[in-house]
Amino acid sequence: MSNPKDTFIDCENCPIRKRRIFRQFEKDDVTYVSKFKTGELSVEAGAAILIEDQKSPHLYTILEGWAYRHKQIVEGKRQILNFALPGDLIGLQLSVLNEMEHSVTGLTGMKLCVFERSEVWDMFKASPALGFSLAWQAAREEQMLDGHLLNVGQRTAQARVAYLVLHLYDRADAIGYACNNALDAPFNQQHLADALGITNVHANRTLRKMIKNKLLTWQDKTIVIRDREALEEISHYERDEDGKRMII
Amino acid sequence: MSNPKDTFIDCENCPIRKRRIFRQFEKDDVTYVSKFKTGELSVEAGAAILIEDQKSPHLYTILEGWAYRHKQIVEGKRQILNFALPGDLIGLQLSVLNEMEHSVTGLTGMKLCVFERSEVWDMFKASPALGFSLAWQAAREEQMLDGHLLNVGQRTAQARVAYLVLHLYDRADAIGYACNNALDAPFNQQHLADALGITNVHANRTLRKMIKNKLLTWQDKTIVIRDREALEEISHYERDEDGKRMII
DNA sequence: CGGACTGTTGATCGGTATCAATGCTCGTGG
DNA sequence: CCACGAGCATTGATACCGATCAACAGTCCG
After folding, report:
1. What residues form DSSP beta bridges with B225?
2. Of the partner residues A73, A128, A146, the one whose CB lies closest to the CB of residue B101
3. A76: which chain B residues are within 8 Å (Cβ-Cβ)?
4. Hey, are the CB atoms on B147 and A101 less than 8 Å from each other?
5. Number of Cβ atoms within 10 Å of the Cβ of B133
6. Which helix (H) or strand (E) holds A167?
7. pTM beyond cutoff 0.85
8. Domain map (residue ranges) of chain A
9. Residue of chain B nearest A142, judged by CA positions
10. Interface residue B142 vs chain A (CB under 8 A)
11. Would you give the distance in Å from CA A247 to the centre of its chain?
């Protein structure tokens, strides 16, 4: 019998980690990640990765695919908190707070690195660089949430759409899920609406108007940015200069 | 001349740290915090602690007072992202991301522990417990932001007010800034409105109605919760069981 | 006393929600 | 092959929440 671990993507040759946008670790730290990684998980589109109030023993780094974090008040009132892409850590709150107050669901089929929650504390002791990296991820997520809260709290529907499209495009672009102003968008109008705090009907009307005004197109699961400048002006979006990111 | 450091509150006897809601560190870790702490800062009400896009060399832990994190789109469109109370870390994003995309302003006079941003990485190496604690703070902030985003994105004005009042009461209660359903509220209706993504006029009307309905009162900078059960039902708020918190 | 800030209230407008109906695409099973 | 249903997108009619503009009251403070 071959060891199933042999079939894993090993961290030294991780295709995500090697991308230029990620800061490269010291050799010892990568070695520790390899030990920390206990498996790989592949799931179909629409799979629940983590569920509110349920304490999974695992946390994950996305290798492939899109997911979204979300939270419900009552049946039918859902807020999408953020989207997650390759390189992003899933289950961060769980790993340090020992609580899970939101769910994570896949939008596409996904491939995930699996880590053991119970070993997070050991990781902080064994590798300060990995601990720092976890804090880095948390701070980055907070920064994105700040942006979303500003978006939902202060902008009109059209500006919200403009902001979110640019935000997602730039993130997807950074990891190769978008280029030439074309974004591979595996979500539908309902997802968009739930992320923006508006109804699907209003999201649709807003999109129709923006499409008519040649700001963007959205066909066949692909969003094309046709007038980036106008979208930036509507939403006062500013691309953040892309320094090196961290990854676990 | 006496060493000014002699007049600092020393971390071993820190009145905040000693509170029961905080997890106690090992002796060595507290010793390290003492070294990490390079000063104390006292500021008047309304002072700017950190400013968007400006890289302060410092980060802070609040010893006394209230502050708020906020972010602007254009003049007059401000979102209050969250409030900060004693024990909370200020400048976390700055410390690990090396970026500052929001401002922090004091609501009351404040006393702050001062740390050097440049020493954060050393802290991770020297004390895994402190590194973990920083990650913990980041995750907790993210969790609160999740709640606020859900609030602003999915609830009506009245439910937003209900949620925020309960949220702030419970946080203030945990560190002794509230008790007997009375919350010492150093903010005004404009702050509330900016945190909830509504106008001050509408915040006022909503509050009037809630006061008329005997849900709460707000006089002399004090909010009194008169019908917690009703507020919880309106907003579907759930108090989170208060496990031990971490502090740096 | 006067000015600044905050809170309050009215009138009106506009953006979004809600309810409802229809069309479209796609996968599935008869 | 077509029928059917599920899920998603689209559009219309209407209601309502919250924004906007404006005026004024109350309080505090120099």
Report:
1. B216
2. A146
3. none
4. yes
5. 25
6. helix A157-174
7. yes
8. 4-146, 149-235
9. B142
10. yes
11. 13
What single letter denotes the amino acid at residue A233?
Answer: E
Helix and strand element counts for chain A (H, E) = 8, 12
Cα nearest neighbour of B123 on chain A: A128
Model pLDDT for residues A62-119, shown as the tens digit of each residue: 999 999 999 999 888 999 999 999 999 999 999 999 999 999 999 999 999 999 999 9
Q: Does domain B9-148 have CATH number 3.40.1550.10?
A: no
Q: Which CATH superfamily is domain A4-146 in?
A: Jelly Rolls (2.60.120.10)
Question: What are the strands of the beta sheet with A182-184, ordered from one edge?
Answer: A178-179, A182-184, A222-225, A216-219
B9-148 and B156-235 share one CATH topology? no
Strands, E, within chain B: which ranges? 37-43, 48-50, 58-64, 67-72, 78-84, 89-90, 103-106, 110-116, 178-179, 182-184, 216-219, 222-225
A56 touches strand D (CB under 7 A): no
The segments of chain B whose pLDDT lies below 50 read none
A156 touches strand C (CB under 7 A): yes
Which residues, numbered 42 to 71 in chain B, qualify as contacts with chain A under a Cβ-Cβ cut-off of 8 Å?
69, 71
Q: Choose among B7, B193, B121, B4: nearest CA to A133.
A: B121
Pick the CATH number of A149-235 from 3.40.50.12780, 3.40.50.11270, 1.10.10.10, 1.10.132.80: 1.10.10.10
CA–CA separation, A244 vs A80, rounded Å?
27
Gap from A28 CA to chain B (nearest CA, Å)? 14
Q: H/E/C letters for each residue in A44-68?
A: CCCCEEECCCCCCCEEEEEEECCEE
CA of B11 to C1' of D26 (A): 45
Residue B145's contacts (CB-CB under 8 Å, 6 or more residues apart) are A142, A145, A146, A149, B81, B82
Q: Which two tokens stand for residue A162?
A: 């403009």
8 Å CB contact between A47 and A108: no
What's the DSSP call for residue B164? H
CB-based contacts of B210: which residues, under 8 Å, 6+ apart? B158, B161, B162, B216
Rounded CA gap, B178 and B170, in Å?
8
Strand C-proximal residues of B, range 170-229, CB below 7 A, are: 188-190, 200-201, 204-205, 207-208
Q: How far is the CA of B233 from the C1' of D17 (A)?
A: 20
Provide the CATH number for the domain formed by B156-235 in this structure: 1.10.10.10
pLDDT digits (tens, 9 = 90+) for A184-227: 999 999 999 999 999 999 999 999 999 999 999 999 999 999 99
